[in-house]
Amino acid sequence: MADQTARQRARRAALDAQARMRARRMEQERRRDALGVVVVSALAERDVVVSACEARAGEALAKMTEQEALSLAEAVEWCGGADLLTVREAARLRQAAQQARTTNTDAGASGTGGVGSGDGGSGGGRAAG
Fold first, then answer.
1. Does residue 49 contact residue 107 with C-beta atoms inside 8 Å?
2. Cα–Cα distance between 114 and 100 in angstroms, integer?
3. Domain locations in the chain as residue ranges
4. Distance CA 129, CA 110 (A)
5. Pick from 68, 73, 97: which is nearest to 85 by CA?
6. Rounded distance, CA 77 to CA 87, Å?
7. What is the per-residue pLDDT for 102?
8. What are the start-end ranges of the H helices in the chain?
């Protein structure tokens, strides 16, 4: 009889330990789920802010090349040079702004082959001067 009681106590202790482990794992999983949501939400917010900032930069670069008649390389120099902005990055920003402008103007149109889409960052064919 004492043997059976000891076995029952041992079984109960093991089951209790397993239940505590399961509860800890569930709590850990809930914390990790919540933290994962925080990470993804923060990254989504960052992407919105970055997109808005890049759009502003692209618009300004487009004005520098279109209205001020600067080549893209000259515009980059006015922005602080290659230490802050490369010509390649400036071309990407300007092209993205031009595509956004075309998309907004041509709402409902296909948006392909828009003005400036084939520029490729060449400065729009303007001579440096």
1. no
2. 10
3. 2-105
4. 36
5. 73
6. 9
7. 84
8. 2-66, 72-78, 87-105
As given in the structure block, the two tokens for residue 110 are: 């296909």
pLDDT at 126: 40
Tens digits of per-residue pLDDT, 38-58?
Answer: 999 999 999 999 999 999 999
Task: Give me 122's structure tokens.
Answer: 């060449």
Tokens 């939400």, located at residue: 41
Instruction: Please state, rounded to an integer, the average pLDDT across all residues of the chain.
Output: 86
Single-letter amino acid code for the residue at 22: R
79/76 Cα distance (integer angstroms): 5
The closest of 74, 116, 75, 113 to 95, measured between CA atoms, is 116
Q: Which helix (H) or strand (E) holds 91?
A: helix 87-105
- Give pLDDT tens digits for 66-79: 999 999 999 999 99
Q: Is the pLDDT of residue 129 over 60?
A: no
Average pLDDT of span 14-31 = 98
Report the distance separating Cα 46 and Cα 14, nearest Å.
48
120: which 2 tokens?
Answer: 């490729």
Of 1, 128, 117, 114, the closest CA to residue 71 belongs to 128
